[in-house]
Amino acid sequence: MSDADGAWVSLFSGGKDSSWALYRALEAGLPVDRLVTVHPAGDSYMYHVPATELATLAAESIGIELIDVEPDDFAADTAADSGVQGDAELEPLEAALEELDADLPGGIAGVTAGAVESEYQTSRIQGMCDRLGCELFAPLWQEDPRDLADAMLEAGFEIAIIQVAAHGLDESWLGRTLDREAITELEALHEEYGVHILGEGGEFETFVVDGPHMDRRIDLEYEREWEGTRGRLRITDAELA
Fold it and tell me: Are 166 and 158 in contact (CB under 8 A)?
């Protein structure tokens, strides 16, 4: 059982949702001592997948030590039951947190997560926290997507779109900043195609290049890769400004 005065750990990909959960935790005065990034090898039911290697630079800018979790094979098995697959994907993360719980003074008091609407993810993370004897801080959970988007922008988050896969999102969205104009367009695409304005259904993925919790902006150089109806940025260089 972890000490209530122990450390907090943020599940962190560098994307907007996990970054917002971290930011809100810091704002609330929670003592976040580690960031933990899972690097899936392929498609994943549980985790943000693209460009997780950039989390190292983000952690350096934020000033919190990063722990990498790199399982041998995280590719989603489409033949497997999704519940079984999700549980299997959670195991390396839980093992890493158990080690941290033993190593950190006072253990792990709590974990932050950026889930918005996914019961699939949140129930598993909550179960993991219950087994670890720690709290879960999920400030985005079941909040209004537009309110969340506005709050991120008002706080000063600069959010880059790094992958898209949805009707209505073409190659021009790759590398685009998720600003108020983009949010307005996404609301129209939600009406027409059902696109979630925060990309909660995998319509798009993001990376936070700057924010109030970061000391230095991250500059990206990239090439666009487009395959019919989906695409991503291939990052060719990334550095702290």
Answer: no
The two structure tokens encoding residue 17: 């949702």
Q: Which residue type does 69 have?
A: V
- Give the mean model confidence (pLDDT) for residues 66-95: 68
Q: Taking Cα atoms as reference points, which of 176, 178, 184 lies closest to residue 220?
A: 176
Interval 200-239: pLDDT, tens: 888 999 999 999 999 999 999 999 999 989 999 999 999 9
* Domains of the chain with CATH codes: 7-137 (3.40.50.620), 145-240 (3.90.1490.10)
Token couple for 165: 């896969």
* pTM of the entire predicted model: 0.89
Q: Which pLDDT does position 89 carry in this prediction?
A: 80
C-alpha to C-alpha distance for 211 and 61, rounded to whole angstroms: 10
For residue 138, which of 156, 125, 155, 149 has the smallest C-alpha distance?
Answer: 125
- Give the separation between CA 202 and CA 29, rounded to whole angstroms: 31
